[in-house]
């Protein structure tokens, strides 16, 4: 919705996992990566933030390795 989009753009909220998966599909982004990043954003300031941040980095590195092998 427009209200949700507005909240995301001014950092007042984050999209839920289901929306993140749909957005990833539309944007041709790995859904695991986007869901992990959304969760990291959602957990900022909490102990679990570093776990989600690590998961994001791990998925990003794995995707980069796969892309490199393609070429």
Provide a quick synopsis of the model.
Helix content is 75%, strand content 0%. It is an all-alpha fold and 71 residues long.
Characterization of this structure:
Helix 2 packs across helix 3 and helix 3 (31-42) packs antiparallel against helix 4 (49-70). This protein is flat. Helices cover 75% and strands 0% of the residues. The chain has 71 residues and is mainly α. The protein contains 4 helices and no strands.
Question: Key terms for this structure?
Answer:
single chain; 71 residues; mainly alpha; 4 helices; flat
| Tally of helical segments | 4
The helicity comes to over 70%
- Biggest sheet details: none
Structural class: mainly alpha
What is the overall pLDDT average? 86
| Radius of gyration based on Cα positions | 13 Å
- Helices and strands, in order, run as HHHH
Describe the global form: flat
Poorly predicted regions: none
Distance separating the two termini = 39 Å
Oligomer: single chain
Question: In percent, how much strand structure appears in the residues?
Answer: under 5%
Helix and strand topology:
Layout lengths: L1 H8 L7 H11 L3 H12 L6 H22 L1
Helix pairs in contact: 2-3, 3-4
């Amino acid at each position: 919705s427009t209200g949700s989009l507005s909240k995301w753009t001014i950092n007042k909220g984050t999209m839920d996992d289901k929306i993140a998966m749909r957005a990833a599909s539309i944007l041709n982004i790995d859904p695991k990566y986007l869901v992990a990043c959304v969760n990291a954003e959602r957990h900022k300031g909490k102990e679990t933030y570093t776990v989600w941040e690590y998961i994001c980095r791990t998925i990003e590195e794995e995707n980069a390795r796969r892309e490199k092998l393609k070429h």
